[in-house]
């Protein structure tokens, strides 16, 4: 099951569209969730009943619009909707226990009812029990390429596993990018990248792979490489050195700067 959070914003609807297409590729169901304060979900009779009722009715409209978008994108997938009675970050993290992927928009409507504001994307990206996709900068049209950032850390194996599997699902090319502080990366650096990619490549021989070593900061290297890409895939944590490719700080910066949908892969499941 893929879980997607919505709040009524355009960014939320774009996340739903992306999640619906991904659900069709994976042949799994889609759960569309909208969070509201617990008191609004439960209050029926006290002095705040009218406000609570307004919030619930608004939430129903949000879910209905999101379900309509999902069914328009992919009529054949199973789509369900649900209310989450809690802070959106905590609610999505809990609901994602049963999901293989959590999808959110990069920002939302803000204000009291805002669900997918940047703080929510940041909050779930660091703590969700599954891989997280933050939908931003949808390519038009996509170029049929997935970009993956690797650094040789133990987490890179899972990041590559996700990226190869996604490339195979989409029939896309995979570009593996490794940033280094060396001024002129040589053959040894490319051999190092090949050594990182070959285990996953062996399981997915039909995926075309481009290996690239870039001098510079990981954020800028990945941002440039991912322009117009279908996806940018990184780990949620990585090395603690400047040359580390999948730093927590790098992931956080890419939440703001990624030019395409960003996947944050957990190191363990």
Order of helices and strands: EHEHHEHEHEEHEHEHEHE
Q: Note the gap between the termini.
A: 15 Å
Structure summary, number of beta strands: 10
Number of helices: 9
In helices, the fraction of residues equals 40-55%
Query: What does the largest sheet look like?
Result: 10 strands, mixed
Assign an overall shape: elongated
* Mean pLDDT figure: 84
Would you summarize the structure shown here?
The chain is of the alpha/beta class and 269 residues long.
Description:
By secondary structure, this protein is α/β, with parallel strands linked by helices. The chain starts with a strand and ends with a strand. 43% of the residues lie in helices and 21% in strands. The model is unreliable at 110-117 and 238-247 (pLDDT under 50). The protein has nine helices and ten strands. α4 runs parallel beside α5 (118-127) and α6 crosses α7. α1 (10-26) links the parallel β1 and β2. It has a ten-stranded mixed β-sheet with strand order 3-2-1-4-5-10-9-6-7-8, with helices on both faces.
Any descriptors?
269 residues, alpha/beta, ten-stranded mixed sheet, 9 helices, 10 strands, elongated
Architecture blueprint of SSEs:
Blueprint: E1 2-5, H1 10-26, E2 30-36, H2 38-42, H3 49-73, E3 79-85, H4 88-95, E4 101-105, H5 118-127, E5 131-135, E6 145-149, H6 155-170, E7 173-180, H7 187-203, E8 209-215, H8 218-225, E9 231-235, H9 248-257, E10 262-265
Helix pairs in contact: 1-3, 4-5, 6-7, 8-9
